[in-house]
Amino acid sequence: AGGGKRADMATDIKRQQLYAMYPSIERATLDDIFSANDFAIGQTVDAIKASCDLEPKQTSMSAEILPSLSKSANEIEQHFRNPQPGPEVYQQTMYPDYEDFRAEAGLHAQQREDCLRKAAQAFQQKRGDIAQYYSQQACLHAEKMREANRRASQLILSSR
Known about the structure:
single chain; mainly alpha
């Protein structure tokens, strides 16, 4: 339980950095982008720069301290976010079967729909930069969904 709290604390520190760096972007949107980038602040900043063409606001932290803090927080998270496998195995990872690929495709379909909904909301709020980001994410999930479905169909054909 203590390890989870440390990882949460590291994530919260990075989240607060993002809020300070991008005060003009809604916090819920920043949280979504942060989560989509596996809670890595560097990747999140890069995604915002690429998608929204926004530079981060200079905070009170110097440019030298921010990367080292991000690295430390990432190291803490990696240490505590790697769960040890339990006795139950819910999905076959060594030899996935048809249901595993279909479940993966279904997950990507849900994520695609969620991204499209968020893109539509951002577009209605006249936030084209954010809408574009979510639209791009939806396209990536659509491609991953198609790939998982393709692997499922190949598995069926190869078993005949």
